[in-house]
Amino acid sequence: MVKAADIGSKRLINLAPDAWVQWVTQRPEVVAKEILGSEFHWISRETDVLVKAYSGTHGDFLVLNELQLRYTAQIPLRMRAYAALAQERYRLPTYPVLINILPPPSTLTIVSSYEQEFLGLRAIQDYRVINLWEIDAEIVFGQPLPSLLPFVPILQGGGEVSVVQRALKAVRADEQLNELESLLAFFASFVIDTPLVQQIMRWDMALLRESPWYQEIEQRGIQQGALRQLIRVLEQRFGEISHEAEIRLEGKNVEQLETLMDSAIAVSSLEEFLTIISA
Questions:
Q1: What is the pTM of this model?
Q2: DSSP 96-114
């Protein structure tokens, strides 16, 4: 029986940390020394993995990995905050990397830096962006990169049945990778009909529903639906709303959006509503 696909980002990277840091930095001489804690005071998230790495040229440094199911407008600020917190805690230079798993809505542009200017002062944080749908599936087998095996179906050229079967064979050939099978099946279901996925894999939907990836997708879908409904109500009442207002709403969870829906119906102007979300 296949294990539940309870695969966190840290466990994925820990499968082959040297190969991972070499891939994200594009420097073959880099080695991973230790996976560090990424809990900073009140902040702790499963999507962040902090690796202490080393190269002969640069010495010790940190690779901050942020794996996001889908990019949101809040990510640049988050990357700035986590990079600064990591550097402050460990007193080492930090190389931040954002790995986006699935494409965002077409209306959202992915950026690779955070920039803000206020009262003549500037805050800038660059970070590397890796969009998995732009990565050639062949590099997973060639380098190899076992941490990316579950994502093969959504990589470039990875949606073919034969390629998914190659990934499945690699997963089943190594006991350490066996637990990735359910996660591979999950992402295969994005590009291959469910009955076919069930034919080529030991796949149980009940197990996949226990996966934190599945739960995140489900929760994100509910959140995006609530956000779209709220924006629709606001536009019907007050006309088009600004992009800045949409970004502020995007950071709200489902419960907050439901509360704001009541406010959107009750207020008499968009300015009054914006005052509420700023409170």
A1: 0.73
A2: EEEEEEE---TT----SEE
